[in-house]
Amino acid sequence: MAKEKLSRSRELATKVIFAALQILSEKGGQAPGKEVVSEVEKRVNFDDWAKAIYEKSGYVRWQSILHFYSIDCIKAGYLVKKMGVWYLTPEGEAALKLGEIGLLNAAIEAYKKWKNENQPSEVIEGQDVSEEGQQGQEATIQEVEQLAIEGLKKQIDHKNPYEFQDLVAALLRGMGYYTPFVAPKGKDGGIDVIAYRDPLGTVTPRIKVQIKHREDTASVQEIRQLMGLLQKDGDVGMFVLSGGFTTDAKTTARSSHVHVELIDLNRLITLWQEFYPKLADEDKARLPLIPIFFYSPVV
């Protein structure tokens, strides 16, 4: 049987998409998108054509192709992108067995099926990847979103522990809470912020917040220490940690007899984006955002 003849773009796509999903598999099923792209660059040999820069967008060709065809993988159920992190699904893991060409072909067919069912339109075969068309637009939007999330994480990472603490307190105020206590520098007895629904704290829930700004994840012991501080009816614990939480820590919080909410960096950013319009100008200045709008076709 004659070997399938692929266009240069499609041939490059088979390599970068397969490499990306393979990298995710090797990393346990998830990794920051920026890290995946960096690893693909190390794993795949690119010629000058692949490394060329699109004049219109300024994007490198192979990276644009990776993002472009990642949309097919998303529609096929092989890949999920959320808050700058890429997740390999069980279906994506299984699709790796199809090989480079088989995986991409299956993803493309899945995308075509989705598009025909949701947004039927003329499909032009064999066209090179560019910024034109809805799929190209969707890939560009995802690239911009990923850059935005990475930028926010970098800005938060540069904050010292007390600035991070003030950021969390500002978010709570934007969510409609009063924050009568924000711990000063020094010992705080384990509680960094106390938040009430009313100025006097007579209405539940009364939130006791512990905040840590570090790369290390929280341990089960730290979650239990916060649980021990919730002594009154209506007390709710909140643990905000930029480094995230271990699986055991999450299980401990879920199974607790008291309500303990865990907020990692991704969730903090999501909440900041959601409640940003409700923040006071002084609080907005702690992590300023600029909204960007894209055309969204009606499905």
Describe the structure.
The chain has two domains: 8-157; 161-284, Trna Endonuclease, Chain: A, domain 1 (3-Layer(aba) Sandwich), CATH 3.40.1350.10. The longest helix is centred in the middle third of the chain and has 25 residues, at 133-157. The model is unreliable at 122-127 (pLDDT under 50). It is of the alpha/beta class. The chain is built from twelve helices and eight strands. It has helices spanning 8-26, 33-43, 48-51, 61-75, 90-95, 99-118, 133-157, 161-174, 220-227, 247-254, 265-275, 281-284, and strands at residues 30-32, 79-82, 85-88, 178-182, 193-196, 206-212, 235-241, 260-263. The chain is elongated.
Q: What is the overall silhouette? A: elongated
* Low-pLDDT stretches: 122-127
Counting DSSP H or I runs of 4 or more residues, the number of helices is: 12
Task: State the total count of DSSP E strands.
Answer: 8
Radius of gyration: 23 Å
Task: Supply the number of structural domains.
Answer: 2
Distance between the termini: 40 Å
Helix fraction bin:
40-55%
Query: Strand content of the residues, in percent?
Result: 5-15%
Sketch the topology as an H/E string, one letter per element: HEHHHEEHHHHEEEHEHEHH
